[in-house]
Amino acid sequence: MQIQNFFYERYGDVNVLSKNPLVIQSLPRFSNAFKDGGFDSSDYRQVDTYYGPLLEHFLRQYGYNNIFLVDIDGNVVFCVRKDEHIGTNLKTGEYSSFSIGEVFKEGLNHIKFSDLSWCEDSKDFTFMAAAPVFDLTNRLLGVIIVEVPYSKIDVFLSQRDGLGETGEIYIVGDDNFIRSKSRFFTQNTILKLEIDTEGTRDAFRGNTDIKIIKDYRNIPVISAYTPLENLRDVNWILLVKIDVKEALHSVLAIKTDLIIIGTIITIITVTYLYFTLRKKQIKSTDAELP
Q1: Are 233 and 114 in contact (CB under 8 A)?
Q2: Where does the record place the Cache domain (predicted)?
Q3: What is the DSSP track for 86-125?
Q4: 238 and 168 in contact (C-beta within 8 Å)?
Q5: What pLDDT score was predicted for residue 255?
Q6: What's the predicted TM-score (pTM) here?
């Protein structure tokens, strides 16, 4: 539910931003100034001086990495934190096939959320979310795109309460690559570690279950898994697991104690019966003597 709510809230955030009067006013002004004279023109600097700080406030308020304004032609006419995308065209340029280009094309028609992708500027994985921007006459002006840091969802996946030393929560995408950090690897595993287990295959078939299976380390674990439904734009499954050895440690300890206690009781009982019967045999022998 936390993961699903994360997506619902981000959809809501970008939808609200796309309808904000500040965004509706600033996008065409940035676009016109960019087309007339570029980023170094006095007109563009004037628009940036007025609207830039206000849009930066949104970035801090929502905790985004960046906010982009893209006009209807695909030009990235503004971003709060200037990066390699500024001034490029998301329809025809070098980033048209990247996540930002894909969400822009979809964002012209409806709200679109991307899967995780690497952001070179922040040196971290991010999500891209896009929404169309319309003016008061319902004329399409362009798209607003926000860059959401991975840390926003990692806070759910890094929980360890009740999972002991070997338990973990992780997400796998439909390409079988993990979307979270494994606690058993020092290097980053996001989109690098491929996981194809009995649990992942069953979850992608739409099933929810708890089973003892071998995990991606080929170690027996108790695994609970389920598809993450209603995420709209990503096809993910959620798995929670803990090593069988650790999960059943207390049960095995009690079993071992019971075996030891049972063995001791058996030895004592056998010893008692032996000496009792021995004593009876001696008395019987003594009674038969003349």
Answers
A1: yes
A2: 2-240
A3: TT-BTTTSTTTTSHHHHHHHHHTTS-EE---EEETTTTEE
A4: no
A5: 61
A6: 0.81
